[in-house]
């Protein structure tokens, strides 16, 4: 057991829009809940991991550093990391798993704090990213053409899927409909009521084929996952959820030079790192900052063939809570809020523990997948209840 | 579009791309050893790691790989809707350019449309936009 890594605690702050509580305090709220959940105390924490680390140039996107948290919690850590230059959001959890397997730490707080809605309302405190003057790096290749948002970049991949494979808006809508249906019975989710196909079809367009409901919205929240070493799980009170495999990749750092989404190589590689197979999976929690992204994950992970993602979603029954492959049972980012990747790991743990309440899927789920990342970057976790 | 486009910060890697339009040239960095194209431009070839790379004027023709009609005004002065497209250049294998398709109605653009470059200058930057080939 010592050479394994487990998720032993989960926590989340209030999830809201334009919250006034500071992002650091939201992070501490989520940590306290996760520590209590695991039955640990702060003096047992010896590692911290976050994605993408504090970003001074885009503070609302990532306002809290691993160092900030270590400082205010008075932690004595032996290992920590906060890095954007990694596979994708859940890469932070994969890195923590590697650290505990290597014996570098025993219990690691992994967190993702977002404050984009509050930042938009308080630009003097949280300056927005500069998109007009002196743009450099990746931004210079897209912003000059009005493609400011990942919505524009992702929409082009979705449009290509429509033209090449026949994906329809009705099929795409199933992601938002499913997310809203699940969020409506998740008391922590931003969305409080279901969405109809008519609502979806009459919504204003953002960037074709995406309408308003295909895009997640800025959210203020912190999500925490505690990763523990196999030889430390007798110190926790929860059912440990094993991180059975991880995978991650970057196709091309420039979104517009990538031929494929990173979900394809990462989905393929996840199965190389485990004896489990797609047929063993009880639920999938697939990154859906934009509604198209789960299609790339379903195809990349081999739940259907390339180009068949739209047909897989058609009618929505297959991905419903009582379907063959329940997807985004907590509401995903379109329903729960833009928790930016960590919400998918959180919900996978909820379902595997059987703690989903009204949204709990049946059949004693034992194997789940959580993914993060859209466009060229991707990270995936295979989580099991042994 | 009337809006003030985002202005790239010029450096040794990107200057030829963003200013080539002054001479009517769409410059894509190319490796003089292996012939491969490097975009975004860098000082080293991503195919063979040669440092013998230089801007090369391509024909400026291509096809629409994919596109989206943007309806959201991301900035106050942005006029919508407009077409954002990913253009595959004819003579620079593996290179795509994010751009706008201009001089036609937004619903007149489709994948595989043949397009050619047309430059729009603002404040010393020559933005490579594309229009449909009639």
Task: Show the helix and strand layout.
The complex is a heterodimer of chains A (386) and B (134).
Chain A: E1 5-12, H1 23-38, E2 47-50, H2 66-73, E3 79-82, H3 91-101, E4 107-115, H4 116-121, H5 150-165, H6 169-183, H7 197-202, E5 205-207, E6 210-211, E7 220-229, E8 241-250, H8 263-272, E9 283-285, H9 293-300, H10 309-313, H11 332-335, H12 342-353, E10 367-372, E11 377-384
Parallel strand pairs in A: 2-3, 2-4, 9-10
Antiparallel strand pairs in A: 1-7, 1-8, 4-7, 5-6, 8-11, 10-11
Helix pairs in contact in A: 8-9
Chain B: H1 15-19, E1 26-31, E2 53-58, E3 61-70, E4 82-89, E5 96-102, E6 114-122, E7 125-132
Parallel strand pairs in B: 5-7
Antiparallel strand pairs in B: 1-2, 3-4, 3-6, 4-5, 6-7
Keywords:
heterodimer, A: Peroxisomal Thiolase, Chain A, domain 1, Peroxisomal Thiolase, Chain A, domain 1, 2 domains, nine-stranded mixed sheet, two-stranded antiparallel ribbon, B: 134 residues, mainly beta, two-stranded antiparallel sheet, globular
Q: Considering DSSP H and I runs of 4 or more, what fraction of the residues of chain B is helical?
A: under 10%
Shape of chain B: globular
Task: Work out the oligomeric state of the chains in this entry.
Answer: heterodimer
| Total strands of chain A | 11
Order of helices and strands of chain B: HEEEEEEE
* String of helices and strands of chain A: EHEHEHEHHHHEEEEHEHHHHEE
The tally of beta strands of chain B, per DSSP, is 7
Q: What does the radius of gyration of chain A come to? A: 19 Å
Q: State the low-pLDDT regions of chain B, or none.
A: none
């Amino acid at each position: 057991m010592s050479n394994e890594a487990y998720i032993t605690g989960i926590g989340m702050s209030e999830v809201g829009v334009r919250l006034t509580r500071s992002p650091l305090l939201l992070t501490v709220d989520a940590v306290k809940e996760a520590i209590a959940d695991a039955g640990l105390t702060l003096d047992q924490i010896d590692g911290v991991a976050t994605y993408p680390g504090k970003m001074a140039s885009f503070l609302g996107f990532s306002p809290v550093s691993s160092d900030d948290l270590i400082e205010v919690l008075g932690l004595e850590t032996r290992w920590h990391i906060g890095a954007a230059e990694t596979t994708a959001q859940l890469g932070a959890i994969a890195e923590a798993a590697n650290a505990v397997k290597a014996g570098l730490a025993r219990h690691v707080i992994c967190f993702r704090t977002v404050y984009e809605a509050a930042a938009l309302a308080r630009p003097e405190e949280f300056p927005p990213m500069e998109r007009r003057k002196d743009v450099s790096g990746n931004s210079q290749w897209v912003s000059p053409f009005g493609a400011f948002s990942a919505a524009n970049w992702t929409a082009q991949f979705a449009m290509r899927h429509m033209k090449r494979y026949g994906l329809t808006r009705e099929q795409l809508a199933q992601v938002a409909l499913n997310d809203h249906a699940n969020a409506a019975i998740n008391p922590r989710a931003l969305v409080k009521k279901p969405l109809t196909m008519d609502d979806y079809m009459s919504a204003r367009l953002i960037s074709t084929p995406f309408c308003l409901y295909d895009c997640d919205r800025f959210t203020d929240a912190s999500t925490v996952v505690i990763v523990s070493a196999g030889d430390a799980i007798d110190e926790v009170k929860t059912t440990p959820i094993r991180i059975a495999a991880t995978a991650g990749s970057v196709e091309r750092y420039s979104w517009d030079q990538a031929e494929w989404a990173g979900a394809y190589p990462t989905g393929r590689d996840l199965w190389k790192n485990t004896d489990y197979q797609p047929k063993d999976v009880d639920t999938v929690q697939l990154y859906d900052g934009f509604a198209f992204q789960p299609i790339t994950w379903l195809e990349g992970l081999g739940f259907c063939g390339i180009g068949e993602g739209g047909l897989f979603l058609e009618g929505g029954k297959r991905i419903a809570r009582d379907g063959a492959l329940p997807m985004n049972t907590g509401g995903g980012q379109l329903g729960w809020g833009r928790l930016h990747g960590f919400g998918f790991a959180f919900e996978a743990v909820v379902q595997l523990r059987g703690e989903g309440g009204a949204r709990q899927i049946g059949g004693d789920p034992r194997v789940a997948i959580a993914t993060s990342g859209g466009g060229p970057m991707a990270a995936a976790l295979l989580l099991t209840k042994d | 579009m009337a809006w003030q486009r985002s202005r790239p910060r010029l450096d040794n890697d990107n200057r030829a791309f963003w200013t080539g339009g002054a001479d009517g040239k769409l410059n894509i960095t190319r490796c003089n050893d292996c012939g491969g194209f490097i975009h975004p431009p860098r000082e080293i070839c991503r195919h063979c790691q040669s440092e013998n790379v230089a801007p090369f004027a391509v024909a400026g023709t291509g096809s629409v790989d994919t596109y989206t009609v943007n309806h959201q005004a991301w900035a106050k002065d942005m006029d919508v809707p407009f077409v954002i497209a990913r253009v595959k250049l004819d003579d620079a294998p593996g290179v795509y350019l994010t751009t706008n398709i201009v001089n036609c109605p937004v619903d007149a653009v489709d994948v595989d449309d043949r397009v050619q470059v047309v430059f729009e200058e603002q404040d010393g930057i020559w933005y490579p936009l594309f229009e449909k080939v009639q």
